[in-house]
Amino acid sequence: MLTAPHPYEALMDITARPRTVFVQGKGSWLWDDSGKRYLDFIQGWAVNSLGHAPPELAQALADQATRLITPSPAYFNDTSLKLAKALVDRSCFDQVFFTNSGAEANEGAIKLARKYGTLRKNGAYEIITFEGGFHGRTLATMSASGKKAFEPLFEPKVQGFPKARLNDIASVEALISGNTVAIMLEPIQGEAGVWPATDKFLQQLQALTTRHGLLLIVDEIQTGMGRTGKLFGYEHADVLPDIMTLGKGIGGGVPLAALLATDEAACFEHGDQGGTFNGNPLMCAAGLAVLDLVEKPEFLKAVVDNGIYLESELQRISARHGLGDVRGRGLLLALDVVRPIAPALVAHAFELGLLLNAPRPDTLRFMPALNVTRDEIAAMIDVLDGLLTKVGAARCVA
Q: Which of 45, 219, 317, 353 is deepest in the core (most CB within 10 A)?
């Protein structure tokens, strides 16, 4: 017999959550069980690329569920083949392995690079990653990440991930040795506070990996599928990576991710990689529905235009309140609030029906649906502006 309206204690307590329980969503909006409405500028950490409950995605899932949910990854299914071919045709890669989460895709990229090192680089296994990077929560992806909070956890870590500094090519060169097989990075470090790798730095990495015969791996779990205004973030720099991982927005809200590789890098042999639900047609149908909309030039142009509008509005209120830089690209942006007040702003915004994210104490991150409207951006800015005004007034009184 339950003694509370919601059995909160049945879920493992792995993060601080408000007691609010969401029951419905549509587009940029969520409703809790009391009927209160919230404007969502987190969207599952850039997961809901088309917002909440998009009809195209719901229809694709319903249609696929009546036809075939999964035949087992021991067999081909037509939906995964269609999605794989669509991703290959729209990228610089030749082969796709589907997974269920971004961490699993990144784990696969690490394994693929190490296999490549075994077969073609005399057993080289080290992958240079970056301070501030975030690649997931498996043991290997936590080890690859440069997140300080991960350092004391779950020791001993997986070895073989020396850390360079983002946008510092000399720090990368200094780490290259006979054991190096690859360089892996996010085009924009989201968890670190939305710090972009410059186009020039990505081009330098391309030249460096080519010169040393290394693999270039781009973790596009957060930047992929239109988030930056191009289908894939690496396209801005006009580089050709060897391996890419996708997640979050590729499924529009369902658990789908992918590992893509060139023919040269795709060296898995039978038995090296697998997964019970990988490439199941139900999730791949969602991926096809998302891609069908996101790849359209007019859709990507709207992402660019709305990103410019959001950036300009954030810059406006930053100047108004004496805050710091606005960073990022497209609809993955951050505002430097200078002082460690971001968590408090997030909490107050929640009370007012606005969902924001603070990846760092002095940083707000904005990850709205890719089809967010100008009116919704303006509504978010109004709430944030009001909150910052109150914080500024409180500071003056203090």
A: 219
